[in-house]
Amino acid sequence: MFFVALTSIFAALLYNLLIKNISAASGEHKRVHPIILFAIPFISLYNLYFVFGFSEYFVFSTTATLILISIFLTDALFTHIPNTIVLPAIGAIFAFQIFRGTDISDILIAALLLSGFFLLQYIISSGRWIGTGDIWLGVLIGLMLGLRGTIVTLFLAYIGGALFAATLLIFKKKDHSSKIPFGTFLTAAAYISLLFGQSLSTAYLHLIAIR
Protein backbone atom coordinates (compact mmCIF):
# COMPACT_ATOMS: atom_id res chain seq x y z
CA MET A 1 0.00 0.00 0.00
CA PHE A 2 2.86 2.39 0.83
CA PHE A 3 4.39 1.69 -2.59
CA VAL A 4 1.06 2.42 -4.29
CA ALA A 5 0.59 5.70 -2.38
CA LEU A 6 4.16 6.89 -2.96
CA THR A 7 4.04 5.99 -6.65
CA SER A 8 0.70 7.78 -7.02
CA ILE A 9 2.07 10.97 -5.44
CA PHE A 10 5.06 10.93 -7.76
CA ALA A 11 2.82 10.22 -10.77
CA ALA A 12 0.46 13.07 -9.83
CA LEU A 13 3.38 15.50 -9.77
CA LEU A 14 4.54 14.32 -13.18
CA TYR A 15 1.02 14.50 -14.65
CA ASN A 16 0.59 18.03 -13.33
CA LEU A 17 3.90 19.06 -14.92
CA LEU A 18 2.91 17.37 -18.18
CA ILE A 19 -0.42 19.22 -18.32
CA LYS A 20 1.27 22.54 -17.57
CA ASN A 21 3.86 22.02 -20.32
CA ILE A 22 1.29 21.04 -22.94
CA SER A 23 -0.94 23.95 -21.88
CA ALA A 24 1.95 26.38 -22.34
CA ALA A 25 2.91 24.91 -25.71
CA SER A 26 -0.63 24.76 -27.09
CA GLY A 27 -2.05 27.93 -25.59
CA GLU A 28 -4.91 25.91 -24.08
CA HIS A 29 -4.88 26.51 -20.35
CA LYS A 30 -6.13 23.27 -18.82
CA ARG A 31 -5.95 22.25 -15.18
CA VAL A 32 -6.85 19.15 -13.19
CA HIS A 33 -7.24 19.28 -9.41
CA PRO A 34 -4.24 17.67 -7.63
CA ILE A 35 -6.53 15.34 -5.67
CA ILE A 36 -7.90 13.93 -8.95
CA LEU A 37 -4.39 13.58 -10.34
CA PHE A 38 -3.51 11.54 -7.25
CA ALA A 39 -6.76 9.57 -7.08
CA ILE A 40 -6.63 8.25 -10.65
CA PRO A 41 -3.28 6.43 -10.34
CA PHE A 42 -3.92 5.46 -6.70
CA ILE A 43 -7.21 3.71 -7.44
CA SER A 44 -5.82 2.15 -10.62
CA LEU A 45 -2.68 0.80 -8.94
CA TYR A 46 -4.55 -0.33 -5.84
CA ASN A 47 -6.82 -2.44 -8.05
CA LEU A 48 -3.76 -4.03 -9.65
CA TYR A 49 -2.21 -4.71 -6.24
CA PHE A 50 -5.46 -6.16 -4.92
CA VAL A 51 -5.72 -8.57 -7.86
CA PHE A 52 -2.06 -9.51 -8.43
CA GLY A 53 -0.25 -8.72 -5.20
CA PHE A 54 3.35 -7.54 -5.32
CA SER A 55 4.44 -9.68 -8.26
CA GLU A 56 6.36 -9.32 -11.50
CA TYR A 57 3.12 -8.76 -13.38
CA PHE A 58 2.10 -6.08 -10.87
CA VAL A 59 5.31 -4.17 -11.60
CA PHE A 60 4.78 -4.51 -15.35
CA SER A 61 1.11 -3.55 -15.23
CA THR A 62 1.90 -0.61 -12.93
CA THR A 63 4.39 0.72 -15.49
CA ALA A 64 1.89 0.20 -18.30
CA THR A 65 -0.95 1.81 -16.33
CA LEU A 66 1.03 4.96 -15.48
CA ILE A 67 1.80 5.36 -19.18
CA LEU A 68 -1.82 4.79 -20.14
CA ILE A 69 -3.03 7.39 -17.62
CA SER A 70 -0.68 10.03 -19.05
CA ILE A 71 -2.06 9.37 -22.54
CA PHE A 72 -5.64 9.34 -21.24
CA LEU A 73 -5.18 12.75 -19.62
CA THR A 74 -3.53 14.43 -22.59
CA ASP A 75 -6.08 13.09 -25.07
CA ALA A 76 -9.03 13.95 -22.81
CA LEU A 77 -7.79 17.48 -22.16
CA PHE A 78 -6.14 18.40 -25.45
CA THR A 79 -7.44 15.78 -27.95
CA HIS A 80 -3.79 15.06 -28.65
CA ILE A 81 -1.52 12.08 -28.03
CA PRO A 82 2.08 13.36 -27.86
CA ASN A 83 4.75 11.29 -29.60
CA THR A 84 7.09 12.41 -26.81
CA ILE A 85 5.11 10.10 -24.52
CA VAL A 86 4.14 7.25 -26.84
CA LEU A 87 7.41 6.60 -28.67
CA PRO A 88 9.62 6.25 -25.54
CA ALA A 89 6.83 4.19 -23.96
CA ILE A 90 6.91 1.78 -26.92
CA GLY A 91 10.63 1.22 -26.38
CA ALA A 92 10.25 0.82 -22.62
CA ILE A 93 7.36 -1.64 -22.84
CA PHE A 94 9.04 -3.70 -25.55
CA ALA A 95 12.23 -3.95 -23.43
CA PHE A 96 10.14 -4.89 -20.38
CA GLN A 97 8.36 -7.61 -22.35
CA ILE A 98 11.67 -9.07 -23.51
CA PHE A 99 12.88 -9.08 -19.89
CA ARG A 100 9.67 -10.86 -18.81
CA GLY A 101 10.16 -13.56 -21.44
CA THR A 102 6.92 -12.72 -23.24
CA ASP A 103 6.17 -14.34 -26.59
CA ILE A 104 7.66 -11.64 -28.85
CA SER A 105 5.92 -12.86 -31.99
CA ASP A 106 2.53 -12.52 -30.26
CA ILE A 107 3.03 -8.91 -29.15
CA LEU A 108 4.60 -7.89 -32.49
CA ILE A 109 1.66 -9.35 -34.42
CA ALA A 110 -0.76 -7.58 -32.09
CA ALA A 111 1.08 -4.27 -32.49
CA LEU A 112 1.17 -4.63 -36.28
CA LEU A 113 -2.49 -5.56 -36.59
CA LEU A 114 -3.85 -2.82 -34.30
CA SER A 115 -1.64 -0.04 -35.70
CA GLY A 116 -2.37 -1.27 -39.24
CA PHE A 117 -6.10 -1.17 -38.53
CA PHE A 118 -5.82 2.45 -37.39
CA LEU A 119 -3.50 3.33 -40.28
CA LEU A 120 -6.07 2.01 -42.75
CA GLN A 121 -8.75 4.22 -41.17
CA TYR A 122 -6.38 7.18 -41.28
CA ILE A 123 -5.70 6.68 -44.99
CA ILE A 124 -9.34 6.11 -45.94
CA SER A 125 -10.55 9.19 -44.03
CA SER A 126 -7.53 11.40 -44.81
CA GLY A 127 -7.03 11.80 -41.06
CA ARG A 128 -10.63 12.77 -40.25
CA TRP A 129 -11.55 9.63 -38.31
CA ILE A 130 -8.35 9.01 -36.45
CA GLY A 131 -5.01 10.72 -35.82
CA THR A 132 -1.42 9.57 -36.14
CA GLY A 133 -1.20 9.44 -32.35
CA ASP A 134 -3.79 6.66 -32.33
CA ILE A 135 -1.67 4.67 -34.79
CA TRP A 136 1.35 4.80 -32.46
CA LEU A 137 -0.94 4.08 -29.51
CA GLY A 138 -2.01 0.95 -31.38
CA VAL A 139 1.62 -0.18 -31.46
CA LEU A 140 1.98 0.46 -27.74
CA ILE A 141 -1.20 -1.37 -26.75
CA GLY A 142 -0.33 -4.34 -28.95
CA LEU A 143 3.07 -4.62 -27.27
CA MET A 144 1.48 -4.32 -23.83
CA LEU A 145 -1.31 -6.84 -24.22
CA GLY A 146 -0.56 -9.31 -26.99
CA LEU A 147 -3.11 -10.49 -29.51
CA ARG A 148 -5.90 -11.69 -27.22
CA GLY A 149 -5.76 -8.67 -24.91
CA THR A 150 -5.63 -6.33 -27.89
CA ILE A 151 -8.78 -7.84 -29.41
CA VAL A 152 -10.62 -7.36 -26.13
CA THR A 153 -9.31 -3.80 -25.80
CA LEU A 154 -10.49 -2.86 -29.28
CA PHE A 155 -13.92 -4.34 -28.62
CA LEU A 156 -14.32 -2.51 -25.30
CA ALA A 157 -13.02 0.78 -26.71
CA TYR A 158 -15.44 0.83 -29.62
CA ILE A 159 -18.39 -0.17 -27.43
CA GLY A 160 -17.49 2.51 -24.89
CA GLY A 161 -16.88 5.14 -27.56
CA ALA A 162 -20.16 4.38 -29.31
CA LEU A 163 -22.16 4.57 -26.07
CA PHE A 164 -20.46 7.83 -25.07
CA ALA A 165 -21.05 9.40 -28.49
CA ALA A 166 -24.68 8.30 -28.51
CA THR A 167 -25.21 9.80 -25.05
CA LEU A 168 -23.73 13.14 -26.13
CA LEU A 169 -25.89 13.18 -29.25
CA ILE A 170 -29.03 12.38 -27.30
CA PHE A 171 -28.40 15.25 -24.89
CA LYS A 172 -27.21 17.47 -27.77
CA LYS A 173 -23.78 18.07 -26.24
CA LYS A 174 -22.14 17.17 -29.56
CA ASP A 175 -23.12 16.89 -33.20
CA HIS A 176 -22.09 14.35 -35.83
CA SER A 177 -19.08 16.42 -36.88
CA SER A 178 -17.68 16.75 -33.33
CA LYS A 179 -14.35 15.11 -32.57
CA ILE A 180 -14.24 12.57 -29.75
CA PRO A 181 -10.81 11.67 -28.32
CA PHE A 182 -10.76 7.95 -29.05
CA GLY A 183 -7.46 7.51 -27.23
CA THR A 184 -9.28 7.96 -23.92
CA PHE A 185 -11.42 4.91 -24.65
CA LEU A 186 -8.46 2.90 -25.91
CA THR A 187 -6.39 3.60 -22.81
CA ALA A 188 -9.28 2.88 -20.43
CA ALA A 189 -10.04 -0.37 -22.27
CA ALA A 190 -6.35 -1.32 -22.22
CA TYR A 191 -6.28 -0.84 -18.45
CA ILE A 192 -9.31 -3.10 -18.07
CA SER A 193 -7.50 -5.69 -20.19
CA LEU A 194 -4.41 -5.41 -17.98
CA LEU A 195 -6.59 -6.00 -14.94
CA PHE A 196 -8.97 -8.68 -16.22
CA GLY A 197 -7.38 -9.59 -19.56
CA GLN A 198 -7.20 -13.35 -19.23
CA SER A 199 -10.78 -13.89 -18.11
CA LEU A 200 -12.16 -11.28 -20.52
CA SER A 201 -10.29 -12.63 -23.52
CA THR A 202 -11.38 -16.19 -22.73
CA ALA A 203 -15.01 -15.09 -22.42
CA TYR A 204 -14.87 -12.94 -25.55
CA LEU A 205 -13.18 -15.54 -27.73
CA HIS A 206 -15.67 -18.13 -26.51
CA LEU A 207 -18.48 -15.72 -27.40
CA ILE A 208 -17.30 -15.38 -30.99
CA ALA A 209 -16.54 -19.12 -31.15
CA ILE A 210 -12.74 -18.86 -31.56
CA ARG A 211 -10.83 -21.64 -29.91
Summarize the structure in short:
The protein has 211 residues and is an all-alpha fold. The chain is built from seven helices and no strands. It has helices spanning 2-26, 34-52, 56-78, 83-100, 104-125, 132-170, 182-207.
Average pLDDT taken over every residue: 86
Indicate the proportion of strand residues.
under 5%
How many separate structural domains?
A: 1
Number of strands: 0
Low-confidence runs? none
List keywords for this structure.
211 residues; mainly alpha
Notes on the protein architecture:
It is a single chain. The chain is an all-alpha fold and 211 residues long. The protein has one domain. It contains seven helices and no strands. The chain has helices at 2-26, 34-52, 56-78, 83-100, 104-125, 132-170, 182-207. The longest helix is centred in the last third of the chain and has 39 residues, at 132-170. It starts with a helix and ends with a helix.
